[in-house]
């Protein structure tokens, strides 16, 4: 790691302000994705705390809540909270005002504008601090869920889709492209025929077919998107291997009697890593957009998981009504993260001196 930060590649990358800014955004996004349930105001699983009375509120909405203990609160470990979130220990009841007596709390429950209901709870049934005030900085959706919290947790979904998609596409594309470029002949013809068939199918149509075959869900989206994005990698790797296989160090490895797989893995792949990293960054950005599109169309991540595309689908009707931020916030998040990966990809292309090869 230290040698990388002292390398010419890192020095060239640092000079590219756009790439450096994109890298900072990506690092922040990764930290947010890992610790999302410790950062989000709503730390319940999937940030799915439903409070129907406050649905569709605008950014900056503030409301006091009466905290009523649940009958059987669930306690979770640090690791489970990190991965799945922490179930609410209290029921959150929106109120307009409250007063305390010696052993109870009397409040006026918020039902709608100018509509309230008088309620009373014994202090033993409430939290130590019975009333808290929450501010919804980006407003609430139609179910009364905190948009900011769902946006934060949704970062994990988008980055997970991008990462697993890149791993799948790089793995398949690297193997098939290397075989086609190294062996040429009938191997190249068969692989290129298969690549051209997949290339001719529209990406979304292929994703739909794979998703319908595997079913709707979280992991199915990863696989579906990954299996449609390896073609670009395979074509690029094939071209790089065709150019590299005739160089002297490859001929020397053959003369020493090394096996073909060792030559490909230990001698060719390290020398074509630059172009592969550039296309990996581009595929990461494309995967985020495709996942958002699939979720918007209803064949991607399923509720209540907070995918950014699903959030746009659930709230796009608010764009032309009173609260457009419900749909615009996840849209801006998608735009920012995709832009960051594109800027980083362009910076890597220049820093690794692979501009003329792509």
TrEMBL record:
Primary site of residence: membrane
Membrane-spanning residues: 20-40, 159-183, 190-212, 218-237, 268-290, 325-345
Keyword entries, A-Z: Cell membrane, Membrane, Transmembrane, Transmembrane helix, Transport
Topological category with respect to the lipid bilayer: Multi-pass membrane protein
Location(s), subcellular: Cell membrane
Family indicated by similarity: Belongs to the binding-protein-dependent transport system permease family.
Name of the protein this chain belongs to: ABC transmembrane type-1 domain-containing protein
Species annotation: Mycovorax composti
